[in-house]
Amino acid sequence: VEPKVIKEAGLDINYLQWSDVLKLNAGNAKFGYQQIAELEDAFKVAPNIHHQIHIKGKHPQTISVLLNKLKEQSNFTITSFDLQILKQIKQINNAIKVGWIVKPKQEKGNEGVTDLTAQVMANPDALPIYSSDEQNDIIKQAKRTNIEIVILCAPRIKDRTVIDFVKKNNMQCGAWGVGTNLTIAKKLTHYGIDRFTIDNPEELDRKD
Q: Residue ranges of the GP-PDE domain (predicted)?
């Protein structure tokens, strides 16, 4: 669920009840009203697709409930901005594949209540390229937590250097924060990124 949807409903992501979630509209102008789907339904509808499950907020029961629901599944990756959440998952089951979504400046707080994609896409050219020190620090933290996928802030990937560096350290490299920016999406593809999220994938494949 997008942070703005939760915020508009006056809900706190850390104290969500399923009865409240069911009332949210997960649709948009194109698809109209859409009720939030349960995790089990998502796997039933798309059994052959690899699912990326993004943990938001700090509800104390999230990890235990989620892992219990995933016992019979294998085609998924769990992602989060919070390294501590990913560390807990690895301590429970090191075989689970996890991805670290790296904040623009690795800043603390506001995840789950702020639309970070809208924030970084407001002026993507103003964001600096990843420095060597930042790259080394990211890899150091990722290795310490047994991360398989490092998911970087897309507007900060100005060339393929950081992508190659992540891969050189035996991790997949992904990106977030593309939004609907096809220029950035095409650059990421050209740079050889392993994965990224985009709001308008149907336009990315379109031949004008």
A: 61-202
Express each pLDDT in 98-143 by its tens digit: 999 999 876 666 565 577 888 899 999 999 999 999 999 999 999 9
pLDDT band at 6 (very low <50, low <70, confident <90, very high): confident
Q: Distance between CA 31 and CA 38 in Å, rounded? A: 18
Separation of alpha carbons 121 and 133, rounded Å: 24
Cα torsion angle, 17, 99, 138, 145, sign: positive
- pTM score over 0.85: yes
Judged by DSSP in three states, 154 sits in helix
| Average confidence score pLDDT of the chain | 91
Written as one string, the DSSP assignment of 122-135 is TSGGGSPPPPHHHH
Single-letter residue type at 111: E
Neighbour count for residue 164 (Cβ, 10 Å): 13
